[in-house]
Design goal:
Blueprint lengths: L10 H10 L3 E4 L10 E5 L2 E7 L13 H9 L4 E4 L2 H12 L3
Parallel strand pairs: 3-4
Antiparallel strand pairs: 1-2, 2-3
Helix pairs in contact: 1-3
Length: 98
C-alpha cells in the first residue's frame, strides 16, 4: 500500500541550497513508501538524501518505519539533512572526496 508522501517545511529550501552549491538534484519526495526525499549528484558521487525539518524536536525528526527499512536495505551512500548547514557540510565532504 502506498503511503502518502509529505514534504517537510524546509524541503524547497534544502533542494535550492543543494542546487545553489552545484549539485544535480533529483527530487523524489513524491514517491513515499520510505524512499529518500531526493538524490544528489556531484563529482561523480550520488547520495540518497532524507530531509528532516531541523526546527522540529528530535522526536519529530525520527525516521518512519518505511524510511528505516530503506536505510537498512540501501547499500549506497545515504544522508539525513535537517538544515542548510547540513547541506553545506555534505557538499564539502563530497568535494573533498568524503
Amino acid at each position: 500500500m502506498r503511503v502518502r508522501a509529505r514534504k517537510d517545511s524546509n524541503h524547497v529550501e534544502i533542494v535550492k541550497a543543494f542546487r545553489d552549491m552545484g549539485a544535480c538534484v533529483l527530487d523524489t519526495a513524491q514517491l513515499g513508501n520510505g524512499a529518500p526525499d531526493c538524490f544528489i549528484a556531484m563529482n561523480k558521487q550520488c547520495v540518497a538524501v532524507e530531509i528532516k525539518d531541523g526546527s522540529k524536536p528530535p522526536s519529530a525528526r525520527k525516521l518512519t518505519p518505511d524510511e528505516v527499512k530503506f536505510h537498512d536495505e540501501w547499500s549506497g551512500w545515504i544522508e539525513i539533512v535537517c538544515n542548510v548547514d547540513d547541506v553545506v557540510n555534505l557538499v564539502n565532504r563530497i568535494r573533498s572526496g568524503r
